[in-house]
Amino acid sequence: MRLFHFSEEPDISIFEPRRVTVATTRAPGREWLDDPLVWAIDERHEPMYLFPRDCPRVLLWPTESSTADDVQVWWGARTCRMIAHIEWAWLKRLTLARLYRYELPSKGFETIDDAGMWVSRTPAAPLRIDVIDDLPGALRDRGVELRVMERLAPLRPLWSSSLHVSGVRLRNALAWFDGD
């Protein structure tokens, strides 16, 4: 299994466990996820992080338990692996961004059973660093359809669907918390 950490920083020699910047309400027994940790993503789910760090985004894909109705409404006849939505305000930053994909050793990491995320309570030294300077191309190469919208807020109903839905940095999305 390959694990990665994506950063806009080109020279990280060791990843030290640190607390999340914005604490999240965790399920009982999962509060430890706000403790100092090193975070990584597995290879299958890496497209979720092929964006500038603070870029709000919504990614979705059908699962074995997705209903035919939800697939028809939200997915259609697509053959891509995932659909990623961002706001127009972020498109230029996405096209100009350069990311560094740090491959981390899997030893010492444990899954949190949430969309390919893994954590370590101990420092991790990268095995290799890859530069990614064409993020739209990297998404396309990994089977991700990129959609650009004025706002992500109209996607809120996706969380009531049977598709897998991941939202990242939604606190930075336009009108996300306005309830409209």
Write the layout of secondary structure elements.
Elements: E1 3-7, E2 38-42, E3 57-61, H1 68-75, E4 82-87, H2 88-96, E5 99-104, E6 109-111, E7 117-120, E8 128-132, H3 135-141, E9 144-149, E10 164-168
Parallel strand pairs: 4-9
Antiparallel strand pairs: 1-2, 1-5, 2-7, 3-4, 3-10, 5-8, 6-7
How do you describe this structure in short?
The protein is an alpha+beta fold. It is built from 3 helices and 10 strands, in the order βββαβαββββαββ. It has one domain.
Highlighted features:
alpha+beta, 6-stranded antiparallel beta sheet
Describe the structure.
With 180 residues, the chain is α+β, with helices and mostly antiparallel strands. It has one domain. It has helices at 68-75, 88-96, 135-141; strands spanning 3-7, 38-42, 57-61, 82-87, 99-104, 109-111, 117-120, 128-132, 144-149, 164-168. The strands form two sheets. Strands 6-7-2-1-5-8 form a six-stranded antiparallel beta sheet, with no helix packed on it. Strands 9-4-3-10 form a four-stranded mixed beta sheet. The termini are far apart. The model has no long low-confidence stretch (mean pLDDT 91).
